[in-house]
Design goal:
about 30% helix; alpha+beta; single chain; Defensin A-like; four-stranded antiparallel β-sheet; sodium channel inhibitor activity; about 100 residues; disulfide bond
């Protein structure tokens, strides 16, 4: 009986933890004036450029996800897409520095 109660309490705690840890972080894929996302690839330089782009737009952090820059905590007033399709008119990151910025 004690084992069953212990098991139920443990299971409840695990379920609560999983629910809390999966809360969605606000953000999105920033778009330019033509509603195109910013393409990116692999490599440290490209990751830094995505991060810098997101910081320039007011986000807290950015990274390359599915070959497109994704920004976390991007302000709601910044044009963005919450999801992307297979076909996109991706834009380059011209003018975004490729060195880490403070």
């Amino acid at each position: 009986m004690k084992f069953a109660i212990f098991f139920l309490i443990t299971l409840s705690l695990v379920l609560i933890y999983n629910t809390e840890s999966k809360k969605e972080i606000p953000g999105g894929y920033p778009v330019n004036r033509f509603n195109c996302t910013y393409e990116c690839g692999h490599g440290k330089r490209i990751q830094i450029m995505c991060n810098n782009l997101c910081k320039q737009l007011g986000g807290s952090w950015g990274y390359c996800y599915w070959n497109t820059c994704y920004c976390e905590y991007l302000p709601a007033e910044v044009p963005q897409k919450k999801s992307i399709g297979i076909i996109s008119c991706g834009a380059s990151m011209v003018g975004v520095p490729d060195t880490e910025q403070e």
